[in-house]
Amino acid sequence: MARSTSMAARRELGDELRRLRGERRGSQVAAGLQWSESKLSRIETARTGISDADLERLLHMLGVPQSERPPLRELARRGRARVWWAPYRSSVYEPYDEYVAFEAEAVLMCEWESQLVPGLLQTDEYAHAVIRAAADERDTEVLERRTALRMARQSVLSRDPAPRLCVVLDEAVLRREVGGAGVMHRQLQRLYDASRRPGIDLHVLPFAAGSHAAVTEAFVIFDFEDRPSVVHSEDLVGGQLRTKPGDVAVYRAAFEDVRSRALPVSETRKFIARSVELLD
After folding, report:
1. pLDDT tens, position by position, 116-151
2. Who has greater pLDDT, 1 or 119?
3. What pairs with residue 166 in β-bridges?
4. What does the alpha-carbon distance between residue 2 and residue 72 come to, in Å, rounded to a whole number?
5. What is the sign, positive or negative, of the torsion defined by CA atoms of 133, 134, 138, 142?
C-alpha cells in the first residue's frame, strides 16, 4: 500500500474495510460489534479514524488473518495523525476538510471557475471579501480563521514536488469588482504574476466564446498519483464530491471543452494585463 497523508490513509483503510466486509450488511457487522451503524459508516467513508482496539475487533469480526493486519494497522495509525489544517476545522463545513486534503495530495488540479478567482490564487483581501459576502457565519473570529486557512492552503503550490494547476476562468471573474476597485486591481496583478509561474496554466474564457459544456457549475478535478480521480463541484453548503468514473469522465470532458474554447496561456496573460490597465 502506498504511503499517504492522514486523510488519504483513512480513505485507503475505509476502502479496504468495505472490500473485506464483502456482501455482509453494515448493520449486521455493526450489531455484532455492538456499534451503531453510523459509527461503522463513518470509518468506512473516512469521516473518522479508528482506534487500534476497535480495528482489531473489526478485523476479527471480518475474519482477517493476523498476517494481513499490519498494513491495515499502519493505515489506521496514519489516519489518526493530526493534519496541518486541524486548528481551522471548527470554522468550516466538513466537506471542506476533505477538499483541503485532496489539494494536499493531488498531482494535477484542473479547475473551472465562472464567478470568482480560485482560492489558491486569491489575495488575502480578495479572499476576505469573498468569505465575508458568502459566509453563513458573521462571527469575526470565524471569518478571520476561514481567510487564514484559505491563505495557508496556497503553500501547496510551493511543495516539492509541486502539483500542476490548470485553471480556466470565465471573463466574468475579471470583470466582477470583489472588494472594490483597489482590491480587484491587486487581485488581477496576482493573477498576472501567477500566469508566469511554472506549473500553472491559466486560461480566460472570453464572453465571445458563447455557450459551453460547463455553463451550469464551477468545479475542480483532482488527479492523484496512485488512486482514482475525484471531482468537487461548488454549492452553498460545502460542495459535492463525485468519485464514480462515469461522473468524473463527464466533468473531464466539460473541462476540456472550456479549455479548448479559452484563450491560450500567452493571450490570457495579455488579456489580464489589459484588465489591470482598465482599473488604473
Report:
1. 999 999 999 999 999 988 766 577 888 898 999 999
2. 119
3. 110, 201
4. 12
5. negative
pLDDT band at 48 (very low <50, low <70, confident <90, very high): confident
| Residue 39 CB contacts under 8 Å (≥ 6 apart), including other chains | 30
Q: Model pTM?
A: 0.80
CA distance 15 to 249: 21
Q: How many CB atoms lie within 10 A of CB 55?
A: 22
CB-facing half-sphere around the CA of 151: CA atoms within 13 A: 12
Residues in CB range of 191: below 8 A, 6 or more apart: 117, 121, 169, 174, 202, 272
Phi, psi angles (nearest 5°) of residue 276:
-60, -45
Rounded to 10 deg, the angle between the 124-134 and 140-153 helix axes is 130
Rounded distance, CA 150 to CA 118, Å?
A: 10
